[in-house]
Write a structure and sequence with these properties.
- The protein has about 210 residues and is an all-alpha fold.
- The protein has 8 helices and no strands.
């Protein structure tokens, strides 16, 4: 989604570090259109995270274990809507809707997975993930020279595998998204929405 968003509108919808930096540069250069665009992207991302958190809180109060799947299902529905907009609308108002809509979805997804994992994983934050990979790789290598409890070593190896897998998945997803959006444009967003819906539906419909 992040790579497809860049091809569609020229912004990385999940890269809030870059967007805040671009905001600062735009302010320095007096380019208010850049400042306003970046403010909009940041606010949309935060709004998505806020909505996800409110949904999770509401679901927990009602003792709904399926609330996480329902959040992903909501993301799938909104992504399908964006794909339809991409196919049917001209550049204006399509581009702003896609840019802010994808940032909103990235915030929603990131907050949902952060809650699911107990703040261990943020699916769009590769800087943090790569930092964790470096830390855990160093910790794992250190165990060969300074023996530690086997359970601690296994836990380090497990965290290293998890974060490395997320980085690899994000990279492969970005490559796939770039090529598929380049070939299919809005149809790719619709396809991705369908895949997300299929993944989320079993959990969303579960009453356990």
């Amino acid at each position: 989604m992040n790579a497809a968003g860049f091809l569609a509108v020229g912004y990385y919808s999940a890269n809030m570090t870059g967007n805040v930096s671009a905001l600062a540069s735009g302010l320095h250069e007096g380019r208010m259109e850049v400042v306003l665009s970046c403010c909009g992207l940041v606010l949309a991302f935060v709004a998505g995270a806020v909505l996800s958190t409110l949904l999770v809180h509401a679901g927990r109060r009602r003792h709904l274990p399926s609330i996480y799947a329902r959040s992903i299902l909501l993301e799938a529905c909104l992504l399908g809507l964006l794909g339809t907009i991409d196919l049917l609308f001209p550049a204006q108002p399509r581009d702003p809707l896609l840019a802010y809509g994808l940032s909103f979805l990235m915030g929603l997804q990131n907050a949902t997975v952060t809650r699911i994992s107990g703040a261990r994983v943020r699916t769009t934050h590769m800087t943090g993930m790569l930092t964790d990979v470096g830390l855990e790789l160093a910790d794992w290598l250190d165990t060969f020279f300074n023996p530690v409890d086997p359970a601690r070593r296994a836990a380090t190896r497990e965290r290293l595998g998890l974060h490395a897998a997320i980085v690899l998945s994000f990279t492969l997803g970005g490559i796939s998204g770039a090529f598929l959006y380049g070939w299919w444009s809005g149809l790719f967003l619709l396809l991705l929405a369908g895949v997300l819906a299929c993944l989320a539906l079993p959990g969303a419909l579960s009453h356990e």
